[in-house]
Write a structure and sequence with these properties.
six-stranded parallel β-sheet, 290 residues, Rossmann fold, 2 domains, alpha/beta, four-stranded parallel β-sheet
Length: 290
């Protein structure tokens, strides 16, 4: 019998106001992790749904838009910490957003380091948006934390759309999830994958569907819990903010959204408001790379 103490989860007593941000509803997975770790925090949510999805936008368009959107949302909500719950935004414009804000900013990093520790075959799959796949930052993480491992990458906007549909309560057939992740396992060396990094915050929304439709048993890892821990760490110690949380801010009017208001309420954000973002020239420039 092992004398190792069992793992116990201890919620943090930290207080403060946190704003979790994504282009769509994927960041709700991160908001849930933060609420679980910090039950006394006032957690709010924001989605740049007027520019969804980020994964098919050009680098220039995102770099121009993200600092402005972040500043407008922070001015509206007045949080103590701004959490970018989006791999695409974080791997591209984290420095620019931090420069635009005067509060701590927590980014999202693909969970390559824990995946490299977990794999037994030495072959890791990485599911992300095309934008995250092509970022130099992602390649640097692989070189730094997965040296000597084989990492097979797949960019999928289709899986983002399936996750959004699932969150809206639509009946998505299992075959759709199987098809969305099949290229990862069908790639050269894919038959050796035993660990998959979910490098888009949308994907944990459908973790169960991915597990059920994978060709064999594999581990799916994400960075949600690590983001929650970092959020607690950077909270100012002297904050006087608080409240219940539960407000969601959208960059497209709620009456123009495709069921997003209903999804937000289902995930504990019943109060939805519109935050106008001043248009800029490049906000509709998609990337030529897919």
């Amino acid at each position: 019998m092992s004398d190792q103490a069992p793992f116990t989860f201890e919620p943090s007593p930290a207080r403060g106001r946190v704003l979790v941000f994504d282009s769509g509803v994927g960041g709700l997975t991160v908001a849930g992790e933060i609420r679980a770790l910090g039950p006394r925090l006032a957690v709010h949510y924001a989605a740049d749904n007027a520019f969804f999805p980020y994964g098919d936008k050009s680098d220039d368009a995102l770099r121009a838009r993200l600092p402005r959107v972040a500043k407008a949302l922070v001015d509206a909500v007045q949080p103590d910490v701004f959490v970018i719950a989006c791999n695409t935004a974080s791997t591209l414009a984290l420095a620019e957003v931090r420069a635009a804000l005067s509060i701590p900013v927590v980014g999202t990093v693909p969970a390559i380091k824990p995946a490299a520790k977990l794999t037994e075959t030495g072959t890791i799959g990485l599911l992300a948006t095309p934008g995250t796949i092509r970022r130099a930052y992602t390649a640097q993480l692989i070189e730094q934390f997965a040296a000597g491992k084989r990492v097979i990458l797949q960019g999928s906007l289709e899986l983002v759309k399936l996750a959004e549909a699932h969150a809206r309560g639509e009946d998505v057939p299992p075959e759709a999830f199987a098809a969305a992740q099949a290229p990862l396992f069908n790639a050269p060396g894919g038959d050796q994958i035993d660990t998959v990094v979910l490098a888009c915050t949308h994907f944990p929304l459908v973790r169960g569907q991915l597990i059920a439709t994978a060709p064999r048993a594999v581990s799916y890892v994400d960075s949600g819990a690590a983001i929650a821990r970092q959020t607690i760490r950077v909270l100012p110690g002297n904050t006087q903010s608080g409240g219940q949380g539960g407000t969601a801010s959208l960059t497209r009017p709620p009456d123009e959204t495709d069921g997003m208001t209903r999804v937000l309420r289902r995930y504990g954000f019943p109060d939805v408001q519109f935050v106008a973002i001043e248009p800029i020239e490049m906000t509709s420039a998609p990337t030529a790379e897919t």
